[in-house]
Design a protein that fits this description.
Chain lengths: ~350, ~325
């Protein structure tokens, strides 16, 4: 299957017969802004990790187009199930970037309200959220809702059994769900060739629903294919699998060292396909932007980075009693007992400070 | 005000469970039931018999043969505001869903700092004694007890089966609901008007003075038979139906043991790191100076559940329970 591409790495715009997309200059500038701010936020998070403010960070560098394009295809009533690297998608859903940093700082395991932006919690165990997405979509369909679910996974997760089960439940229930695979070529140190011998997007054929192969570094193509797949889901025509061909420019996470398992030359070839550069080239070529636009945007990015930096540093450590809170909705005798014992033990320590 | 007229009906545990699901589906449109073969067939044990016909294929759903998918989609449905009750066909088939139960179902409420609630009930027919093939006779309760975020309960009678399932469905926490399949066809009077006890309360089902037999699910009936045999020998054995395994009603256990001063815990699950180990540990922490004898455990062995021709050797039977009682009195 051909790779759907609407914008070449040089910024040339093409039409695709199956995936038409009309965009205004304002929308194009908006997509560029989304990608640039996400990249700046991500870079700030890497820095914060290096400075010891975060325990870990999973950078999305290189995957901005896949995430912004697909995320911007959603409607407010749609629901998104991410893994843990979908910072760009979170941005498109209006999630405060600071929400994403709590778990990486170690002050919570997520903790935001998924229903506030219809953006589910980050889920570290890959595979399970696809089934949550399908169940959620089954619920939407049962209610007759005019909305759909967008579920993210990666090339590594494609090997998980839950992904296969999610395809099964989605197709037999004609659930309004779109499976969006960011194939960033690497699952920590394991290349996609060790996950599968057939392209991931072809897999849906075995389940009886369409698969699309899209240039994951082309924000317009990602927007177009995701939008049409979501519309198809909302019409009750069932699931679609999208495989976005992209590249994880950085390590798996800040604890990883990619040079141990891959050659820098590979990264260099992908640098030429950078998602931001091609949209910028297109914007400039068509006169949709001027120097002031980029200057203002750079300033906005720095303000965002500053807000994130200050916000992270101000994040308090959780109250130890938080361990016992929200284990259950209703009282649980053993949790209450252990909390009482813990607090009694703590009370045996003498308070330091002035007498 | 007390119920002026109580309605009793004699029914099997299967009938009581069916009634509980029917009434829950009737009362709350958000309740949905899903599992393998539960629709047209009515479940391999007929617990869901007639429910799809009555409530439709959207609410009583025949699932693909994939347990992780059954639990995983139930989590998604719960996120959307439904109250799913899923059936795992047999105890030994829950393990493909173990990841969903342990990493997702149990933890999402805490992960969301209380913003997400997952009122999912996972019904599992469990335990042996029915002459079944491998993977159809296991008692996996300890795995779930060990996981914070789950509630674990098991009824011993039809009456408790009806009410405890209703209470489990009403719970805003996920509940692992273990149904003793060897007791599925036992009949008893079910009080259809009054809840007998809260879900997580242990109950004395036969009072005694000399020793407490603590059990749950399939082993309660065995302990009642043991108490009868003990009475013939002049021993007054108290039988405690724990009913709930997480949380454990240790107050009732403690109250009983302080009076009887001896305790034997009986379950079909392997004794090693089983529920009995937890109960014994708590009893010695709380009642050490009241005990006349060590707390003893009778249960399965640390071996795979044997072929059915051997299961009577593996399962705690009357002789093994009475032997443990004798040991407790010999101390």
């Amino acid at each position: 299957m051909e790779l759907v591409q609407l914008l070449t790495p040089e910024g040339e715009r093409f039409e695709h017969p199956d995936h038409p997309l009309e965009t205004t200059p304002e929308e194009l500038r908006g997509l560029y802004r989304d990608m640039l701010l996400t990249r700046r936020f991500d870079a700030e998070a890497v820095t914060l990790q290096r400075q010891g403010e975060l325990g870990l960070w999973a950078s999305l560098l290189g995957q901005e187009a896949a995430q912004i394009g697909s995320g911007r295809a959603t409607c407010p009533d749609d629901y998104v199930f991410p893994c843990y690297r979908e910072h760009g998608v979170a941005w498109t859903r209006g999630v405060d970037p600071l929400n994403l940093l709590g778990m990486y700082r170690g002050v919570n395991h997520g903790g935001w309200d998924p229903d506030a932006n219809n953006f589910h919690l980050y889920t570290i165990v890959i595979g399970p959220p696809l089934l949550h997405a399908v169940g959620y979509a089954m619920g939407m369909a049962r209610e007759g809702a005019d909305s759909a679910v967008l579920a993210y996974f990666g090339d590594g997760a494609s090997s998980q059994g839950d992904v296969a089960e999610a395809f099964t439940f989605a197709t037999v229930n004609a659930a309004p769900v779109v499976f969006f695979c960011q194939n960033n070529q690497w699952a920590i140190s394991t290349p996609t060739s060790h996950q599968t011998r057939a392209p991931i997007h072809r897999r849906s054929a075995g389940w009886g629903f369409p698969g699309i192969h899209v240039d994951g570094n082309d924000v317009l193509a990602c927007l177009a294919v995701t939008r049409s797949a979501l519309e198809r889901a909302r019409r009750g025509e069932g699931p679609t699998l999208i495989e976005a061909h992209t590249y994880r420019m950085g390590p798996h996470a800040t604890s990883d060292e990619p040079r141990r398992y891959r050659d820098d030359s590979e990264r260099q070839t992908w640098e030429a396909k950078d998602p931001l550069l091609r949209l910028r080239a297109h914007l400039e070529k068509h006169g949709h932007t001027d120097a002031a636009y980029f200057e203002d945007l750079a300033q906005e990015a720095e303000q965002l980075a500053l807000r994130v930096r200050e916000g992270v540093r101000a994040m308090p450590d959780p109250d130890p009693a938080a361990m016992f809170r929200h284990v259950y909705v209703d009282e649980h005798a053993q949790v209450s007992e252990e909390q009482r014992e813990y607090e009694a033990f703590q009370a045996t320590f003498v308070q330091e400070g002035p007498q | 005000m007390r119920e002026s007229r109580q309605v009793f009906e004699k029914m099997t545990m299967v009938g009581a469970l069916n009634g509980a699901l029917r009434d829950a589906l009737d009362e709350d449109p958000k309740v949905v039931v899903q599992g393998e073969d539960i629709g047209r067939l009515g479940g391999v044990f007929r617990v869901t018999d007639g429910l799809q016909h009555r409530f439709g294929k959207d609410r009583v759903v025949d699932s693909p043969l994939a347990e992780s998918g059954i639990v995983g989609t139930a989590i998604g449905l719960a996120l959307r505001g439904f109250r799913p009750v899923v059936e795992i066909q047999f105890d030994g088939f829950v393990f493909p869903a173990f990841n969903q139960i342990v990493t997702q179902l149990a933890k999402m409420h805490a992960r969301s700092l209380g913003k997400v609630r997952l009122p999912v009930v996972v019904r599992i027919p469990y335990g042996g004694g029915i002459g079944a093939i491998e993977h159809h006779s296991e008692s996996p309760e300890a795995y779930f007890m060990h996981t914070a975020g789950l509630r674990v309960a098991s009824p011993a009678t039809a009456d408790d089966a009806y009410w405890m399932l209703r209470q489990a469905i009403a719970s805003d926490d996920p509940v692992i609901f273990l149904e003793p399949k060897r007791r599925y066809w036992d009949k008893c009077e079910v009080n259809l008007t009054t809840e007998p006890a809260p879900l997580h309360k242990a109950r004395v089902v036969r009072p005694g003075r000399d020793l407490t037999l603590a059990a749950y699910g399939p082993s309660v009936k065995l302990c009642l038979a043991a108490a009868e045999a003990g009475a013939a020998e002049g021993r007054s054995l108290e039988v405690l139906d724990l009913r709930s395994l997480s949380p454990l009603d240790t107050d009732t256990v403690e109250w009983s043991v302080r009076r009887t001063r001896r305790m034997v815990v009986v379950h079909e699950a392997p004794v090693f790191v089983g529920a009995g180990a937890e109960i014994a540990a708590r009893v010695q922490e709380r009642c050490f100076y009241h005990l006349e004898a060590p707390v003893l455990r009778v249960g399965g062995f640390h071996a795979p559940y044997p072929p059915s021709r051997l299961e009577e050797e593996y399962l705690p039977g009357l002789d093994r329970v009475m032997h443990a009682v004798d040991q407790a009195f010999a101390s």
